[in-house]
Design goal:
Layout lengths: L2 H16 L4 H36 L4 E7 L2 E7 L27 H13 L4 H13 L2 E3 L2 E3 L13
Antiparallel strand pairs: 1-2, 3-4
Length: 158
């Protein structure tokens, strides 16, 4: 999608509304359009970031990324690389001996059990894999890549 087409259409709508009034109203509408022209692209990217994060959270494997090249903005699905099976306690000499108590709603517990069964894994193995995925974020130039997608705020030029 071309970001400028969306922004220009919105600004044109603001100016058109201003033309319904007298010269003073039209001038105010032009000034409002000028201010919106600077903030709307960032707001659109914020919205797309939130959409990508929400969709990614529902995907069993992979995530949705926002890709920006000049004026083009695209949403793209990126598959997560297959995860290695977690090591067993015998392979790591007791490395998986730590315990934690979780309090879950019945609904969440049922979903975890269902997903674990769907993967052919125990609930414990499924939770360990999910935690590994969620906590092994890659840090690149100060940005965090996580299952929820990449979030970039601000403006950039190419």
């Amino acid at each position: 999608m071309k970001m400028s087409l969306v922004v220009d259409s919105l600004l044109s709508d603001v100016v058109s509304v201003g033309e319904l009034g007298d010269d003073a109203v039209a001038e105010v509408a032009e000034r409002i359009a000028s201010v919106l022209g600077r903030s709307v692209p960032g707001r659109i990217l914020d919205l797309l970031s939130d959409v990508a994060a929400e969709v990614s959270a529902e995907l069993p494997e992979g995530r949705v990324e926002i890709r920006i090249a000049g004026d083009d903005v695209q949403l793209a699905f990126v598959e997560d690389p297959p995860m290695a099976e977690p090591a067993t306690a015998s392979e790591t000499d007791g490395d998986l001996s730590a315990r934690i108590t979780l309090r879950l709603s019945e609904g969440l517990k049922a979903r975890v059990e269902e997903r674990a069964a769907g993967e052919g894994a125990s609930v414990n193995t499924y939770i360990v894999r999910t935690l590994e995925r969620g906590t092994s974020a890659q840090r690149v130039q100060g940005w965090t890549s996580r299952r929820g997608g990449n979030r970039l705020r601000g403006y950039g030029t190419t």
